Amino acid sequence: MTETKGQMSATDFDAVVVGGGFAGLYSLHKLRGQGLKVRVYEAGDGVGGTWFWNRYPGARVDIQSLEYSYQFDEDLQQQWEWSERYAPQSELLTYANHVADRFNLRPDIQLNTRVTGATYDEAADLWQVSTSQGDKVTARWLVMATGCLSSTNTPDFPGLADFKGRTFHTGAWPKEPVDFSGRRVGVIGTGSSAIQSIPLIAQQATHLTVFQRTANYSVPAHNGPIPEDVVRDVKGRYADFRAANNATSLGADWDYRADLAMEHTEAEREAEYEMRWQRGGLSFYGSYVDLLSDPVANNTAAEFVRRKIRQIVKDPAVAERLCPTTPLACKRICVDTGYYDTYNRSNVTLVDVKAAPITAITPTGLRTADADYELDDIVLATGFDAMTGTLTRMDIRGVGGVTLKDTWAEGPKNYLGLSVVGFPNLFIIAGPGSPSVLTNMLPSIEQHVNWIGDTISYLRGHGLKRIEATAPAQEAWVSHVNETAAPTILPTCNSWYLGANIPGKPRVFMPYLGFAPYVAKCEEVVANGYEGFALA
Ligand code: NAP
After folding, report:
1. Among 139, 245, 345, 536, which has the minimal tally of Cβ within 10 Å of its Cβ?
2. Ligand 1 pocket, 426 CB below 6 A?
3. Ligand 1, from 63, 336, 501: best to mutate by most atoms within 8 Å of Cβ?
4. Which residue range(s) make up the domain with 111?
5. Any domain includes 65
6. SS in 3 state form for 103-151?
7. Considering its fold, how many domains does the chain have in total?
8. Which CATH number goes with the domain that contains 495?
9. Does the predicted TM-score (pTM) go above 0.85?
């Protein structure tokens, strides 16, 4: 029995948090700080979420570390020193562990435990949660800190199980170092994970064959130590730095210009793109305000990147194969170190599997429609069942025993990305319908956790036991999310934003475009007495 303000609650925990990544860690800290009894369940044997699982060579963040870090604790953000502009996976994992220790979070985190299901008990207004370890616990609030890219996608290649060599997925990489020396390696996919790992695998492997279905845009990271004066400058005004970033549409310091690409001459645009290419990183997004909305403007930036590829890659046929034909940023832009140049190596081959699709994995390699490739290792850089996969794989049952999976059979529907009709007291952090993957994830996570914490505090303070989105509010929000994305180039290619990478997944644009307006909307909802929610 846990004590809650104004009432005795017959629950094992006030809140169960699913997932021990950055969202889960901060949820625990925040809710426990409000006096709640909290239990975090984490499937891995350590904390860190994305940075626990994605240990592939070259894995690193593509948002500058001074931004991709928590801001809830001033001492933490002042004292933590990032070694590089874009921290590698190992350092991000160390950071997650540091946070777990620093705030004494571990006693309330149960590792090696996957939440398998949760059922809402309508009579008692609580969640009954079950886990892979046989736990059956109750909690008033259920917080899904399950990550947007946490369920790996392994395509159903015939013969994969019979491959005699080693198989890896970038999103579930072994803890032990993997040595590719002396091996013929095949990498399937050319998304961010592939683009980061390919240059390093190529340095070890006897031969690397990259199987590319869709070429992607990548800009150089120009990674390295963060100059001391930059660290001093940001730390000297951290709160203002964060506030300025949060006020942008994508929630990151991408030096946005407010003018239109087509207002400028070709030479001016070229100079702008070149400046951003030399600076490196995703601030390329900020070049002009209309890159996402005007296909003609977008193509000027796309053509700039294609010219760069043709300059870097010496074999013109390979360069052409690497040139993306989709609009720039329609899939998330990648940030690389030496990716295109890797194709100048004599031990690297690029195979177009759009022209000749993969038909099977054989015991000794990979077969496409027109050739066989002998391989010792296969690296599946084939992405994730993004945003909804982890949520719908759990047996979550709301009012009337209806499952979340069935409720979302035609695509995820919710209010503010936070709350689903029929699933009271369940909160989703950075899920579909929220800005999440179109932003710097850390501020997005913190904004959600703060909103959820404040909401629970409000409910407890008012003796309320239940919150649920209303159907009209949910309908209106889903329409708004779609209407915001529709006029942009974002829904125009087969991205995981749309679920288009998973056969049979409904094609719905999932994230919400616009961090600052989203935060304003969340605040407005509260100011209007939790407008769009039913409280009981
Ligand atoms: P991804 O972007 O979904 O890329 C998967 C790749 O696998 C694509 O090239 C895809 O081709 C290919 N593929 C999938 N199924 C295939 C099949 N049956 N046959 C041939 N090719 C197939 O996945 P990801 O690279 O893991 O990245 C996912 C997201 O994670 C990124 O967009 C990013 O948001 C995040 N991420 C971030 C970082 C970072 O911060 N630095 C690093 C890695 C990942 P198609 O494009 O044709 O579908």
Report:
1. 536
2. no
3. 501
4. 13-47+105-151+386-535
5. no
6. CCCHHHEECCCCEEEEEEECCCCEEEEEECCCCEEEEEEEEECCCCCCC
7. 2
8. 3.50.50.60
9. yes
Within-domain flag for 96: no
Using one digit for the tens of pLDDT, what is the confidence trace for 181-214? Answer: 999 999 999 999 999 999 999 999 999 999 999 9
Ligand 1 within 6 A of CB of 149? yes
* Enclosing H/E stretch for 54: none
**Among candidate residues 347, 380, 413, the one where a domain is terminated:** 380
Our answer on whether the CB atom of 382 is closer than 6 Å to any ligand 1 atom is: yes
| Cβ(282) – ligand 1 distance below 6 Å | no
pLDDT in tens, 435-471: 999 999 999 999 999 999 999 999 999 999 999 999 9
Q: At what angle do helices 238-246 and 441-461 cross, to 10 degrees?
A: 90
Query: 357 is written with which tokens?
Result: 């699709």
CB-CB neighbours of 255 under 10 Å = 14
Q: What are the pLDDT digits (tens) for 217-226?
A: 999 999 999 9
Q: Please tell me if the CB atom of residue 358 comes closer than 6 angstroms to any atom of ligand 1.
A: yes
Residue 371 is encoded by which pair of tokens?
A: 């050739």
Tell whether 454 and 374 lie within a shared domain: no
Question: Do 375 and 392 belong to one domain?
Answer: no
Mutation test of ligand 1: which of 85, 153, 193, 359 has the most ligand atoms closer than 8 Å to its C-beta?
193
